[in-house]
Amino acid sequence: MPVTIAQAVFFTYLFLVFLIGVYAARFTKYTPADFYLADRGVGTLVLGLTLAATVLSAFTVFGIGADTSQVGLGPFSFLAIAAVLYTLFFASVGVALYRIGTEHDIVTPAEYIRVRYESPLLGVVYLTVTGIFMLAMLAGQLLGGGVALDTLIGIPFTVAVLLMALFMIVYIHIAGYRGVIWSDAVQSTVLFAVLAGVVAYVMVVRDSTEIAESAAQEIPGLFDIVGPAELWTPLFVMTAALAFAVGVPGYPHTIQRYFSAGNAQIMRDSGFLFALVAVPIYFFGAVLGVWSVGVIPEPPEPDYVIPLLVETLMHPVVFGIVMAGATAAIMSTADSVALTMSSMLSRDVYREFVNPDATAREEVRATQLLVFLLIVLAVALTLVQPAGIFPLIEFAVVGFATTTAPIFLGVYWSGATKSGATASLIFGPGVTILLFPTIGVIPETLTFGMHYGFVGVLVAYSTFILVSLLSRAPSATSVSTYSQSFWGQGD
Amino acid sequence: MSETVFDRIRQPPLVRYVIVLLVGVLLALAAGHQYVIADWTALYLGLPAWLWTQLGVIAVLFVLAWTAVSLYADTTEDT
């Protein structure tokens, strides 16, 4: 079977990512600080771009377009507001965790939980709960990418999934975090440039207003601020934005990036760089989604309206680059999740419970093996093809949000307790799972018009505060060592 | 040299109130602008006027966030 132009572009792109990993491996030392955090020396540009690449996933490339082509531009409103709010979290809790991590050689979020609350078991609870969402996120990315590559450029699903998995295993294995973040920097740049180019093409070369008018005729209300179904009320937009604003800075793989910043100023600046890259990408995805209705009123695959729009309007090389950009978004999220989860398993389970005398090299070797096993597990899940890929990723994002109370409040509040953290990690995610529309155990009416993830966050935080107030805090020495005052000295 | 108003707002506790005020204005603007621009549906370059306006509002939100973060960084610099 001859290779198409789009397939050739895709394979070239994978090879480019592989070369970046090989190059990064030349600088990699096999110590935990270097393999997990690039020796805590990441600068503003790379940190900002890796944050963007990690956060922007299959959800961004396919999900936003699929959403906006049906529900209007509301997803952009809440994602853009959330992106502004992320900067506040990065500058406050991100900087505080950067400082604590640097001062105490903490390299994983589970390790922070373990030492902050003086409870190795709580570290395992955190790892287990976030692990559910991380595995769902990892499998979700591979599934989204595999189906898209199969449907759109004719690479068989299994081959596509195995190829992405194989390339990730190799470049994480040889280059660790440095390989991940360098390839992320390239991948977010590719994604930004590709989507910007397509939007500019439609605006300048095509008649975007005529396309939009056709779309508005096809779906009345598509360009209204609340959307055709009047879903995107200010209350819904703000609660969705707040749920995401707590969720994204609380991803375990985002928290690991706080620990890797070169200094506090870099942490703050990279948060803004991230948001300045993410907002335009959200914008491009959203507008391409609504425009697609004017060009392809009845798409054969509604989930892939952006690639289908590009395939219809532009040259096959551009289509191949868009698919490479989509793969970039998918792999850059999946690789970060795989490395963070395996480093937590290695450091907070293997070294803590299995082999406390492990050398640094042995710990890294365990991480390399775990990366392989985790990706194999995710591939196995992916090949089963569970349904509902995009709701699943959204579920993972808000699920992460419900695990953040012990981290975020634990950084600033000396009264935070192990019992509060445990209860929060059980009830917050638990309520979110029961509210998840696909499961629907708790009826949607009980969210009172709010995003269900925001309700889960409210439960997680209120449980954490209430139970902490009723229980005994860790020793003052421990708290002062692993916490920071919100307002600085003299507070 | 005499102390300016910018020097004074950088000193605790005033700086804390300023930061809280900035974040409050940011949230109010993020929510409130949606009510004001809801009816601006005319299309320009294929996008509704409310969306172009919202991009401007997002830019203002960034400025407010940057200002709040800069002031906050000053208060926590030595910790």
What are the salient characteristics of this protein?
heterodimer, A: 491 residues, mainly alpha, 77% helix, 0% strand, B: mainly alpha
Q: Describe it for me?
A:
The complex is a heterodimer of chains A (491) and B (79). With 491 residues, chain A is an all-alpha fold. Chain A contains 20 helices and no strands. The longest helix of chain A has 48 residues, at 157-204. Chain A has a single domain, classed as Sodium/glucose cotransporter. In chain A, 77% of the residues lie in helices and 0% in strands. Chain B is mainly α. Chain B has one domain. Chain B contains three helices and two strands. Chain B has a two-stranded antiparallel sheet. In chain B, α2 packs antiparallel against α3 (49-76). The longest helix of chain B has 28 residues, at 49-76. The radius of gyration of chain B is 17 Å and the shape is elongated. Chain B starts with a helix and ends with a helix. At the A-B interface, α5, α9, α10 and α12 of A face α2, β1, β2 and α3 of B.
- The domain count of chain A comes to 1
Largest sheet of chain A: none
Shape of chain B: elongated
Share of β-strand residues of chain A: under 5%
Query: Can you give the mean pLDDT of chain A?
Result: 86
Can you count the beta strands of chain A? 0
Helix content of chain B: over 70%
The H-and-E topology of chain A, N to C, reads as: HHHHHHHHHHHHHHHHHHHH
Cα radius of gyration of chain A in angstroms: 22 Å
In percent, how much strand structure appears in the residues of chain B?
A: 5-15%
State the shape of chain A: globular
Low-confidence stretches of chain A: none
Total DSSP helices of chain A: 20
* End-to-end C-alpha gap of chain B: 28 Å
- Along the chain, the helix and strand elements of chain B come as HHEEH
The strand order across the widest sheet of chain B is 1-2
